[in-house]
Amino acid sequence: MDKKIKIVYEDDNLLVVDKPAFLVTTKERANEKNTLEDYLIENRKNDLPRNGIVHRLDKGTSGLILVAKNEKALDSLKSQFKQRTVKKKYYCLVSGDVSFEGDINAPISRSKYGFSKFAVDVDGKVARTLFKLVAKYRKNNKVYSLLDVDLKTGRTHQIRVHFNYLKWPLVGDKLYGGEVDVLNRPFLHSHKITFIHPTTGEEMTFELEMAQDLIEALEKYEKI
């Protein structure tokens, strides 16, 4: 596998992995190759479904993923996700002059207008996204907002769908109408995760700096 996978933390029960952008998380098709799951099978093989990967990030999203190494850890971590006690934070850059903080509470379902897309829909599943402003930027007389997002639910494409719904698409997110002149993937990075260790009961938090390609993209904007 040509993509470098960084192990952020490892013990006998779990791994915390830094997934690079453009790497698919799990093998959804039998012939799919070069996924994070493949890497784990080659380097940290276990007998768990999806080799213990507890949750996913979109292919174009970088950042932190939890991986269980045994059944007890998998059951505990999956339960924490189901109960929504795992805290996940993301950085994203959106097109728009965004308020200092906000709470997006809008249900999501599969889009009626594109198989690979999702959309806000009154009949969809509950989805809630909190955000705080980190910084504002300008480029070509347009304002952009760097946000720290607190994901309260984990719907597919949730952050991308919610901000597109508010007419603030993520920079680089072609699927949802984002600008692609400075970045060829959604400006979205899972930078912080907090959970309870499945055997010790200790609260654990891991943080990452922003991915290098996102840092380089920001340098093309003027901070205001």
What would your notes on this structure say?
16% of the residues lie in helices and 34% in strands. The protein has helices spanning 36-43, 71-82, 158-165, 212-218; strands at 6-10, 14-19, 62-68, 87-95, 101-105, 108-110, 118-120, 128-139, 142-151, 188-196, 203-207, 222-223. By secondary structure, it is an alpha+beta fold. It has one domain: Pseudouridine synthase. The strands form two sheets. Strands 1, 2, 3, 4, 5, 8, 9, 10, 11 and 12 form a ten-stranded mixed β-sheet that branches. Strands 6-7 form a two-stranded antiparallel ribbon. The protein contains four helices and twelve strands. The protein starts with 5 loop residues before the first strand and ends with a strand.
List its traits:
alpha+beta; ten-stranded mixed β-sheet; 34% strand; 224 residues; 4 helices
Brief rundown of the structure:
The protein is an alpha+beta fold. It is built from 4 helices and 12 strands, in the order ββαβαββββββαββαβ.
Termini gap: 40 Å
Assigned CATH superfamily: Pseudouridine synthase
Q: Whole-number average pLDDT? A: 94
Number of domains: 1
User: Unreliable stretches, pLDDT < 50, 5 or more residues?
Assistant: none
Order of helices and strands: EEHEHEEEEEEHEEHE
Q: Which CATH architecture is right?
A: 2-Layer Sandwich
